[in-house]
Amino acid sequence: xxxxIGLLGLQGCLxxxxxxxxxxxxxxxxxxxxGQLSGLDALVIPGGESSTMLRAASSEMWQALVLFAAHKxxxxxxxxxxxMAREVRNPQQRSLGLLDMVIERNAYGAQNESFAAELAVAxxxxxxxxxxxxxxxxxxxxxxxxxxxxxxxxxxxxxxxRHLATxxxxxxxxxxxxxxxxxxxxxxx
Amino acid sequence: MTEERRQLxxxxxxxxxxxxxxxxxxxxxxxIAEEAGACAVMALERVPSDIRKEGGVARMSDxxxxxxxxxxxxxxxxxxxxxxxxxxxxxxxxxxxxxxDESEVLTPADDDNHVDKTLFDAPFVCGATNLxxxxxxISEGACLIRTKGEAGTGNVVEGVRHMRTIVQEIKKLTQMDxxxxxxxxxxxxxxxxxxxxxxxxxxxxxxxxxxxxxxxxADASLLRQIGAESVFVGSGIFRSSDPPGxxxxxxxxxxxxxxxxxxxxxSRNLGExxxxxxxxxxxxxxxxxGRGW
Lengths: 189, 293
What we know:
heterodimer; A: alpha/beta; Rossmann fold; three-stranded mixed β-sheet; 12 strands
Protein backbone atom coordinates (compact mmCIF):
# COMPACT_ATOMS: atom_id res chain seq x y z
CA UNK A 1 0.00 0.00 0.00
CA UNK A 2 1.21 3.53 -0.78
CA UNK A 3 2.70 5.15 2.29
CA UNK A 4 1.63 8.61 3.30
CA ILE A 5 4.23 10.91 4.83
CA GLY A 6 3.35 14.15 6.59
CA LEU A 7 5.52 17.25 6.15
CA LEU A 8 5.28 19.58 9.12
CA GLY A 9 4.40 22.90 7.50
CA LEU A 10 5.10 25.42 10.27
CA GLN A 11 8.02 26.85 8.29
CA GLY A 12 10.79 25.73 5.98
CA CYS A 13 11.68 23.54 3.06
CA LEU A 14 8.74 21.29 2.15
CA UNK A 15 8.50 21.02 -1.64
CA UNK A 16 11.80 19.19 -2.31
CA UNK A 17 10.80 16.51 0.23
CA UNK A 18 7.44 16.08 -1.49
CA UNK A 19 9.25 15.61 -4.83
CA UNK A 20 11.67 13.05 -3.32
CA UNK A 21 8.91 10.98 -1.72
CA UNK A 22 6.85 11.13 -4.93
CA UNK A 23 9.87 9.78 -6.82
CA UNK A 24 9.94 6.92 -4.28
CA UNK A 25 6.26 6.18 -4.86
CA UNK A 26 4.91 7.67 -1.63
CA UNK A 27 2.31 10.35 -1.00
CA UNK A 28 2.90 13.43 1.12
CA UNK A 29 0.63 15.86 2.91
CA UNK A 30 1.40 19.19 4.55
CA UNK A 31 0.58 19.17 8.26
CA UNK A 32 -0.54 22.42 9.89
CA UNK A 33 -3.24 21.16 12.27
CA UNK A 34 -3.10 18.32 14.82
CA GLY A 35 -5.96 16.53 13.03
CA GLN A 36 -3.88 16.27 9.86
CA LEU A 37 -1.54 13.82 11.63
CA SER A 38 -4.14 11.07 11.58
CA GLY A 39 -3.74 8.52 8.82
CA LEU A 40 -0.06 9.30 8.27
CA ASP A 41 2.59 6.59 8.28
CA ALA A 42 5.36 8.96 9.36
CA LEU A 43 6.25 12.61 9.66
CA VAL A 44 9.14 14.77 8.42
CA ILE A 45 10.09 17.90 10.33
CA PRO A 46 11.87 19.79 7.56
CA GLY A 47 14.79 22.19 7.49
CA GLY A 48 14.15 25.84 8.18
CA GLU A 49 14.53 27.81 11.38
CA SER A 50 13.82 25.85 14.55
CA SER A 51 13.04 29.01 16.54
CA THR A 52 10.37 29.95 14.00
CA MET A 53 8.82 26.47 14.13
CA LEU A 54 8.81 26.51 17.94
CA ARG A 55 6.92 29.78 18.04
CA ALA A 56 4.50 28.67 15.36
CA ALA A 57 3.63 25.39 17.09
CA SER A 58 0.52 25.72 19.24
CA SER A 59 0.44 23.75 22.50
CA GLU A 60 -2.17 21.46 20.88
CA MET A 61 0.17 20.82 17.95
CA TRP A 62 3.09 20.17 20.32
CA GLN A 63 1.09 17.60 22.27
CA ALA A 64 -0.15 16.01 19.06
CA LEU A 65 3.44 15.67 17.81
CA VAL A 66 4.52 13.97 21.03
CA LEU A 67 1.56 11.57 20.81
CA PHE A 68 2.23 10.85 17.14
CA ALA A 69 5.90 10.15 17.82
CA ALA A 70 5.01 7.71 20.58
CA HIS A 71 3.69 5.36 17.89
CA LYS A 72 5.03 6.50 14.51
CA UNK A 73 8.34 7.45 12.94
CA UNK A 74 9.55 11.04 12.76
CA UNK A 75 12.51 12.27 10.68
CA UNK A 76 13.99 15.65 11.54
CA UNK A 77 16.15 17.39 8.93
CA UNK A 78 18.53 20.14 10.07
CA UNK A 79 16.18 22.47 12.03
CA UNK A 80 13.90 19.44 12.42
CA UNK A 81 16.71 17.49 14.06
CA UNK A 82 17.04 20.32 16.59
CA UNK A 83 13.36 19.96 17.50
CA MET A 84 13.85 16.21 17.97
CA ALA A 85 16.83 16.39 20.35
CA ARG A 86 16.76 15.65 24.07
CA GLU A 87 18.63 18.90 24.74
CA VAL A 88 19.35 21.99 22.63
CA ARG A 89 22.19 24.48 23.21
CA ASN A 90 23.09 27.89 21.76
CA PRO A 91 20.55 29.00 22.77
CA GLN A 92 18.82 26.52 25.03
CA GLN A 93 15.31 25.95 23.74
CA ARG A 94 12.37 23.61 24.00
CA SER A 95 12.51 20.35 22.06
CA LEU A 96 10.42 17.20 21.59
CA GLY A 97 13.05 14.87 23.10
CA LEU A 98 12.46 12.12 20.54
CA LEU A 99 16.14 11.32 20.08
CA ASP A 100 18.70 10.76 22.80
CA MET A 101 21.13 13.45 21.70
CA VAL A 102 22.36 16.91 22.63
CA ILE A 103 22.54 19.31 19.71
CA GLU A 104 24.04 22.77 19.28
CA ARG A 105 22.46 25.29 16.92
CA ASN A 106 24.52 27.13 14.28
CA ALA A 107 27.60 25.33 15.54
CA TYR A 108 29.41 25.39 12.20
CA GLY A 109 28.78 29.12 11.74
CA ALA A 110 26.93 31.35 9.28
CA GLN A 111 26.24 30.65 5.61
CA ASN A 112 29.89 31.18 4.60
CA GLU A 113 30.69 28.08 6.70
CA SER A 114 28.05 25.94 4.98
CA PHE A 115 29.62 23.04 3.09
CA ALA A 116 29.13 19.89 1.04
CA ALA A 117 30.66 16.61 2.15
CA GLU A 118 30.74 13.03 0.96
CA LEU A 119 29.32 10.75 3.63
CA ALA A 120 29.32 7.01 4.15
CA VAL A 121 25.78 6.22 5.25
CA ALA A 122 25.17 3.03 7.22
CA UNK A 123 22.11 1.81 5.36
CA UNK A 124 21.66 -1.40 3.42
CA UNK A 125 23.23 -1.58 0.89
CA UNK A 126 26.16 0.58 2.06
CA UNK A 127 25.82 4.03 0.53
CA UNK A 128 28.10 6.98 -0.25
CA UNK A 129 26.95 10.34 -1.55
CA UNK A 130 27.64 14.06 -1.25
CA UNK A 131 25.24 15.99 0.97
CA UNK A 132 24.75 19.65 1.88
CA UNK A 133 25.20 21.11 5.38
CA UNK A 134 23.53 24.53 5.53
CA UNK A 135 24.03 26.59 8.71
CA UNK A 136 23.88 23.14 10.24
CA UNK A 137 23.50 22.22 13.90
CA UNK A 138 26.11 19.94 15.47
CA UNK A 139 25.27 16.81 17.44
CA UNK A 140 27.56 16.98 20.46
CA UNK A 141 26.39 13.99 22.44
CA UNK A 142 24.52 10.81 21.60
CA UNK A 143 23.26 8.57 24.36
CA UNK A 144 21.43 5.47 23.21
CA UNK A 145 21.05 6.78 19.68
CA UNK A 146 22.75 4.86 16.88
CA UNK A 147 25.08 6.91 14.66
CA UNK A 148 24.44 6.16 10.97
CA UNK A 149 26.82 8.69 9.42
CA UNK A 150 29.63 10.89 10.65
CA UNK A 151 31.54 13.84 9.28
CA UNK A 152 35.04 14.38 10.70
CA UNK A 153 34.10 12.28 13.70
CA UNK A 154 30.88 14.20 14.44
CA UNK A 155 27.56 12.36 14.13
CA UNK A 156 25.41 13.81 11.35
CA UNK A 157 22.80 11.08 10.93
CA UNK A 158 21.38 9.43 14.02
CA UNK A 159 18.68 6.86 14.61
CA UNK A 160 16.89 6.03 17.83
CA UNK A 161 14.37 3.24 17.43
CA ARG A 162 11.88 4.39 14.82
CA HIS A 163 13.10 8.01 14.69
CA LEU A 164 15.74 9.55 12.45
CA ALA A 165 17.67 12.82 12.41
CA THR A 166 19.99 14.22 9.75
CA UNK A 167 21.82 17.52 10.23
CA UNK A 168 22.30 17.69 6.44
CA UNK A 169 19.77 18.01 3.60
CA UNK A 170 19.08 14.85 1.55
CA UNK A 171 16.15 16.69 -0.07
CA UNK A 172 18.47 19.13 -1.89
CA UNK A 173 20.71 16.76 -3.86
CA UNK A 174 19.91 14.18 -6.54
CA UNK A 175 20.26 11.18 -4.26
CA UNK A 176 17.08 9.30 -3.17
CA UNK A 177 18.68 6.74 -0.87
CA UNK A 178 17.82 8.27 2.50
CA UNK A 179 14.22 9.04 1.57
CA UNK A 180 13.89 5.48 0.30
CA UNK A 181 15.46 4.10 3.48
CA UNK A 182 13.13 6.14 5.66
CA UNK A 183 10.09 4.92 3.72
CA UNK A 184 11.21 1.32 4.09
CA UNK A 185 12.09 1.65 7.77
CA UNK A 186 9.46 4.01 9.15
CA UNK A 187 7.47 1.97 11.58
CA UNK A 188 4.51 2.14 13.89
CA UNK A 189 3.49 0.18 16.93
CA MET B 1 30.46 30.89 -7.14
CA THR B 2 31.13 27.18 -7.68
CA GLU B 3 28.23 24.87 -8.54
CA GLU B 4 28.52 23.43 -5.03
CA ARG B 5 28.30 26.92 -3.48
CA ARG B 6 25.29 27.71 -5.68
CA GLN B 7 23.53 24.57 -4.40
CA LEU B 8 24.30 25.56 -0.81
CA UNK B 9 23.01 29.08 -1.42
CA UNK B 10 19.82 28.10 -3.24
CA UNK B 11 19.47 25.48 -0.49
CA UNK B 12 19.54 28.19 2.17
CA UNK B 13 16.90 30.13 0.22
CA UNK B 14 14.71 27.00 0.28
CA UNK B 15 15.04 26.77 4.08
CA UNK B 16 13.58 30.29 4.28
CA UNK B 17 10.35 29.21 2.54
CA UNK B 18 7.02 29.44 4.37
CA UNK B 19 8.30 32.26 6.51
CA UNK B 20 8.64 35.99 7.07
CA UNK B 21 11.83 38.03 6.69
CA UNK B 22 11.64 41.29 8.63
CA UNK B 23 13.51 44.60 8.22
CA UNK B 24 15.16 45.63 11.51
CA UNK B 25 17.28 48.68 12.30
CA UNK B 26 18.75 47.73 15.70
CA UNK B 27 19.33 44.86 18.11
CA UNK B 28 16.09 45.44 19.98
CA UNK B 29 14.01 45.19 16.80
CA UNK B 30 15.97 42.12 15.69
CA UNK B 31 15.08 40.39 18.95
CA ILE B 32 11.42 41.33 18.61
CA ALA B 33 11.44 39.90 15.08
CA GLU B 34 13.09 36.65 16.17
CA GLU B 35 10.77 36.32 19.16
CA ALA B 36 7.76 36.78 16.85
CA GLY B 37 8.92 33.95 14.59
CA ALA B 38 10.77 35.67 11.74
CA CYS B 39 12.82 33.12 9.76
CA ALA B 40 15.45 35.79 8.98
CA VAL B 41 16.03 39.49 9.49
CA MET B 42 17.22 42.21 7.12
CA ALA B 43 19.59 44.57 8.92
CA LEU B 44 19.44 48.15 7.64
CA GLU B 45 19.80 51.65 9.05
CA ARG B 46 16.50 53.06 7.81
CA VAL B 47 13.35 51.17 6.83
CA PRO B 48 12.10 52.00 3.32
CA SER B 49 9.36 54.40 4.47
CA ASP B 50 11.97 56.50 6.31
CA ILE B 51 14.33 56.45 3.32
CA ARG B 52 11.41 57.65 1.20
CA LYS B 53 10.56 60.43 3.68
CA GLU B 54 14.08 61.62 4.40
CA GLY B 55 15.40 61.43 0.85
CA GLY B 56 19.12 61.65 0.08
CA VAL B 57 21.37 58.81 -1.00
CA ALA B 58 20.60 55.52 0.75
CA ARG B 59 23.68 53.30 1.14
CA MET B 60 24.78 50.02 2.69
CA SER B 61 24.49 50.06 6.49
CA ASP B 62 27.38 50.42 8.92
CA UNK B 63 29.08 47.00 9.25
CA UNK B 64 29.24 47.51 13.02
CA UNK B 65 25.46 47.79 13.22
CA UNK B 66 25.04 44.66 11.08
CA UNK B 67 27.55 42.77 13.25
CA UNK B 68 25.68 43.66 16.43
CA UNK B 69 22.46 42.31 14.93
CA UNK B 70 24.24 39.13 13.78
CA UNK B 71 25.45 38.58 17.33
CA UNK B 72 22.01 39.19 18.83
CA UNK B 73 19.96 36.61 16.92
CA UNK B 74 20.21 32.91 16.01
CA UNK B 75 18.38 33.24 12.66
CA UNK B 76 20.00 34.23 9.33
CA UNK B 77 20.83 37.89 8.84
CA UNK B 78 20.60 39.66 5.47
CA UNK B 79 21.83 43.12 4.51
CA UNK B 80 21.41 45.35 1.47
CA UNK B 81 23.88 46.70 -1.04
CA UNK B 82 23.08 49.22 -3.74
CA UNK B 83 22.28 47.96 -7.24
CA UNK B 84 25.59 47.50 -9.06
CA UNK B 85 27.69 48.41 -6.01
CA UNK B 86 29.90 45.33 -5.95
CA UNK B 87 32.31 46.93 -3.48
CA UNK B 88 29.49 47.18 -0.91
CA UNK B 89 28.66 43.56 -1.70
CA UNK B 90 32.32 42.62 -1.11
CA UNK B 91 32.16 44.33 2.29
CA UNK B 92 29.01 42.45 3.22
CA UNK B 93 30.56 39.17 2.10
CA UNK B 94 33.68 39.93 4.18
CA UNK B 95 31.36 40.50 7.12
CA UNK B 96 30.07 36.94 6.77
CA UNK B 97 26.48 37.98 6.09
CA UNK B 98 24.06 35.12 5.36
CA UNK B 99 22.36 36.79 2.37
CA UNK B 100 22.99 39.99 0.38
CA ASP B 101 19.99 41.89 -1.00
CA GLU B 102 20.99 43.88 -4.08
CA SER B 103 18.18 46.27 -3.47
CA GLU B 104 16.32 49.01 -5.32
CA VAL B 105 15.41 50.42 -1.88
CA LEU B 106 18.93 51.84 -1.73
CA THR B 107 20.05 54.42 -4.29
CA PRO B 108 21.47 52.61 -7.35
CA ALA B 109 25.24 52.92 -7.81
CA ASP B 110 25.35 51.78 -11.43
CA ASP B 111 22.68 52.66 -13.97
CA ASP B 112 23.74 49.97 -16.41
CA ASN B 113 25.06 46.96 -14.53
CA HIS B 114 23.92 44.85 -11.65
CA VAL B 115 26.50 43.09 -9.48
CA ASP B 116 28.04 40.02 -11.13
CA LYS B 117 26.87 37.73 -8.37
CA THR B 118 28.57 34.69 -9.89
CA LEU B 119 31.85 36.16 -8.61
CA PHE B 120 30.71 35.88 -4.99
CA ASP B 121 30.40 32.99 -2.54
CA ALA B 122 27.67 34.72 -0.53
CA PRO B 123 24.08 34.25 -1.71
CA PHE B 124 22.15 37.17 -3.24
CA VAL B 125 18.47 37.98 -3.38
CA CYS B 126 17.29 40.42 -6.05
CA GLY B 127 14.02 42.17 -6.81
CA ALA B 128 12.05 41.66 -10.01
CA THR B 129 8.90 43.13 -11.52
CA ASN B 130 8.47 40.48 -14.22
CA LEU B 131 9.83 37.13 -15.38
CA UNK B 132 12.48 38.53 -17.73
CA UNK B 133 13.94 40.62 -14.94
CA UNK B 134 13.87 37.64 -12.55
CA UNK B 135 15.72 35.44 -15.07
CA UNK B 136 18.31 38.15 -15.81
CA UNK B 137 19.09 38.35 -12.08
CA ILE B 138 19.29 34.57 -11.84
CA SER B 139 21.69 34.50 -14.79
CA GLU B 140 23.86 36.99 -12.87
CA GLY B 141 23.92 34.55 -9.95
CA ALA B 142 20.94 35.48 -7.73
CA CYS B 143 19.86 32.52 -5.55
CA LEU B 144 16.52 33.97 -4.52
CA ILE B 145 14.03 36.26 -6.26
CA ARG B 146 11.56 38.60 -4.60
CA THR B 147 9.05 40.97 -6.11
CA LYS B 148 10.01 44.62 -5.86
CA GLY B 149 6.56 45.89 -5.03
CA GLU B 150 6.78 49.53 -4.01
CA ALA B 151 8.74 49.55 -0.77
CA GLY B 152 7.84 51.87 2.08
CA THR B 153 4.29 52.59 0.90
CA GLY B 154 2.24 50.12 2.93
CA ASN B 155 0.49 49.60 -0.40
CA VAL B 156 0.53 46.03 -1.65
CA VAL B 157 -0.74 46.76 -5.16
CA GLU B 158 2.68 46.79 -6.87
CA GLY B 159 3.84 43.63 -5.09
CA VAL B 160 0.66 41.92 -6.25
CA ARG B 161 1.17 43.21 -9.78
CA HIS B 162 4.73 41.87 -9.89
CA MET B 163 3.85 38.48 -8.43
CA ARG B 164 0.83 38.13 -10.75
CA THR B 165 3.00 39.09 -13.73
CA ILE B 166 5.76 36.61 -12.92
CA VAL B 167 3.30 33.77 -12.29
CA GLN B 168 1.33 34.51 -15.48
CA GLU B 169 4.49 34.68 -17.58
CA ILE B 170 5.65 31.35 -16.13
CA LYS B 171 2.28 29.76 -16.99
CA LYS B 172 2.52 31.06 -20.56
CA LEU B 173 5.95 29.47 -21.04
CA THR B 174 4.67 26.09 -19.88
CA GLN B 175 2.09 26.18 -22.72
CA MET B 176 4.64 26.82 -25.46
CA ASP B 177 6.29 24.23 -27.66
CA UNK B 178 10.07 24.11 -27.86
CA UNK B 179 10.28 26.19 -31.05
CA UNK B 180 8.39 29.06 -29.42
CA UNK B 181 10.82 29.32 -26.51
CA UNK B 182 13.51 31.00 -28.62
CA UNK B 183 11.21 33.90 -29.43
CA UNK B 184 10.03 33.91 -25.81
CA UNK B 185 13.64 34.29 -24.67
CA UNK B 186 14.08 37.17 -27.12
CA UNK B 187 10.90 38.87 -25.89
CA UNK B 188 11.67 38.32 -22.22
CA UNK B 189 15.27 39.44 -22.78
CA UNK B 190 16.36 36.45 -20.76
CA UNK B 191 18.84 33.61 -21.36
CA UNK B 192 17.39 30.74 -23.37
CA UNK B 193 18.48 27.98 -20.98
CA UNK B 194 16.62 29.63 -18.09
CA UNK B 195 13.52 30.15 -20.26
CA UNK B 196 13.66 26.44 -21.17
CA UNK B 197 14.03 25.51 -17.49
CA UNK B 198 10.96 27.53 -16.52
CA UNK B 199 8.94 26.07 -19.42
CA UNK B 200 9.81 22.54 -18.35
CA UNK B 201 9.39 22.92 -14.58
CA UNK B 202 6.68 25.57 -14.33
CA UNK B 203 8.67 27.51 -11.77
CA UNK B 204 11.87 29.50 -11.32
CA UNK B 205 15.07 27.55 -10.58
CA UNK B 206 15.26 29.47 -7.26
CA UNK B 207 12.55 30.31 -4.71
CA UNK B 208 10.18 33.18 -5.45
CA UNK B 209 9.28 35.46 -2.52
CA UNK B 210 7.17 38.60 -2.22
CA UNK B 211 8.30 42.00 -1.00
CA UNK B 212 7.17 45.59 -1.16
CA UNK B 213 4.23 47.25 0.55
CA UNK B 214 3.18 44.45 2.92
CA UNK B 215 1.36 46.10 5.85
CA UNK B 216 -1.18 43.60 7.22
CA UNK B 217 -1.66 39.86 7.86
CA ALA B 218 -4.15 39.75 4.98
CA ASP B 219 -1.55 41.29 2.64
CA ALA B 220 0.80 38.40 3.51
CA SER B 221 -1.97 35.84 2.96
CA LEU B 222 -2.86 37.42 -0.42
CA LEU B 223 0.73 37.26 -1.69
CA ARG B 224 1.14 33.65 -0.49
CA GLN B 225 -2.10 32.67 -2.20
CA ILE B 226 -0.99 34.09 -5.55
CA GLY B 227 2.36 32.30 -5.46
CA ALA B 228 4.86 33.80 -3.00
CA GLU B 229 6.80 31.13 -1.10
CA SER B 230 7.68 33.60 1.69
CA VAL B 231 7.16 37.25 2.48
CA PHE B 232 9.56 40.10 3.20
CA VAL B 233 8.15 42.82 5.43
CA GLY B 234 9.94 46.15 5.49
CA SER B 235 8.34 49.11 7.19
CA GLY B 236 5.12 47.19 7.85
CA ILE B 237 6.18 45.94 11.27
CA PHE B 238 8.28 48.60 12.95
CA ARG B 239 6.26 51.55 11.60
CA SER B 240 2.99 50.06 12.83
CA SER B 241 1.43 50.99 16.18
CA ASP B 242 2.34 47.61 17.72
CA PRO B 243 5.48 46.03 16.23
CA PRO B 244 5.47 42.76 18.26
CA GLY B 245 1.75 42.32 17.56
CA UNK B 246 2.07 42.99 13.83
CA UNK B 247 5.15 40.78 13.62
CA UNK B 248 3.38 37.81 15.24
CA UNK B 249 0.21 38.37 13.22
CA UNK B 250 2.02 38.55 9.87
CA UNK B 251 3.97 35.35 10.70
CA UNK B 252 0.70 33.61 11.61
CA UNK B 253 -0.99 34.76 8.39
CA UNK B 254 2.00 33.68 6.32
CA UNK B 255 1.97 30.14 7.72
CA UNK B 256 -1.83 29.72 7.70
CA UNK B 257 -2.38 31.80 4.56
CA UNK B 258 -4.99 29.38 3.27
CA UNK B 259 -7.05 29.43 6.49
CA UNK B 260 -9.25 32.57 6.54
CA UNK B 261 -10.32 31.91 10.16
CA UNK B 262 -6.69 32.02 11.28
CA UNK B 263 -5.97 35.14 9.21
CA UNK B 264 -9.07 36.73 10.74
CA UNK B 265 -7.85 35.98 14.27
CA UNK B 266 -4.42 37.35 13.39
CA SER B 267 -6.02 40.55 12.06
CA ARG B 268 -8.27 41.21 15.07
CA ASN B 269 -7.52 44.26 17.27
CA LEU B 270 -4.11 44.78 15.74
CA GLY B 271 -4.05 48.55 15.93
CA GLU B 272 -2.82 50.97 13.27
CA UNK B 273 -0.91 49.66 10.27
CA UNK B 274 2.06 51.68 9.03
CA UNK B 275 1.40 55.08 7.41
CA UNK B 276 0.56 54.48 3.77
CA UNK B 277 0.72 56.03 0.32
CA UNK B 278 -1.38 55.57 -2.79
CA UNK B 279 0.55 55.01 -6.00
CA UNK B 280 -1.02 58.13 -7.56
CA UNK B 281 0.61 60.26 -4.86
CA UNK B 282 4.12 59.09 -5.74
CA UNK B 283 5.74 60.91 -8.70
CA UNK B 284 7.23 58.50 -11.25
CA UNK B 285 10.76 59.65 -10.41
CA UNK B 286 10.30 58.64 -6.78
CA UNK B 287 9.12 55.10 -7.50
CA UNK B 288 11.69 52.53 -6.45
CA UNK B 289 10.50 49.57 -8.56
CA GLY B 290 11.78 51.19 -11.75
CA ARG B 291 15.36 51.04 -10.49
CA GLY B 292 17.39 48.26 -12.17
CA TRP B 293 16.33 46.51 -15.37
